[in-house]
């Protein structure tokens, strides 16, 4: 299992529309509206890196109001 955090910037005024689309995806475990440089943060869980690629290409890139994303793959401090 791979966990990732996706930082999302959306077109101004479209936060709720984007949230509604993203909230329907089963790979997204948590979604938060945030203030600052980014508008939304997602916590995503996928089975492998190929699924993360697919999520990025087939979900995020198809939402017109998303302007930019930054994906951070989560790691553990445990060995």
Describe the structure.
With 79 residues, the chain is of the alpha+beta class. It has one domain (2-73): Lrp/AsnC effector binding domain/regulation of amino acid metabolism (RAM) domain (Alpha-Beta Plaits, 2-Layer Sandwich). Helix content is 23%, strand content 38%. It has 2 helices and 4 strands; from the N terminus they run βαββαβ. The chain has helices at 15-22, 49-58, and strands at residues 2-10, 28-33, 40-46, 66-73. Strands 2-3-1-4 form a 4-stranded antiparallel β-sheet. The longest helix is centred in the C-terminal third of the chain and has 10 residues, at 49-58. It is globular and about 45 Å long. It holds the Pfam family AsnC_trans_reg. Residues 6-74 form the Transcription regulator AsnC/Lrp ligand binding domain. This is AsnC family transcriptional regulator.
From the structure above, extract its key features.
Alpha-Beta Plaits; 23% helix; alpha+beta; 2 helices; globular; 79 residues
**N-to-C terminal Cα separation, in Å?**
16 Å
Q: Provide the domain count.
A: 1
**C-alpha Rg, in Å?**
12 Å
- Taken as a percent bin, the fraction of beta residues is 35-45%
**The CATH topology is what?**
Alpha-Beta Plaits
Q: What topology, given as strand order, has the largest sheet?
A: 2-3-1-4
What kind of sheet is the major sheet?
A: 4 strands, antiparallel
Low-confidence stretches: none
The assigned structural class equals alpha+beta
The CATH architecture classification is 2-Layer Sandwich
- By CATH, the superfamily comes out as Lrp/AsnC effector binding domain/regulation of amino acid metabolism (RAM) domain
Domain Transcription regulator AsnC/Lrp ligand binding: 6-74
InterPro entries: Dimeric_a/b-barrel (IPR011008), Tscrpt_reg_AsnC/Lrp_C (IPR019887)
Protein name: AsnC family transcriptional regulator
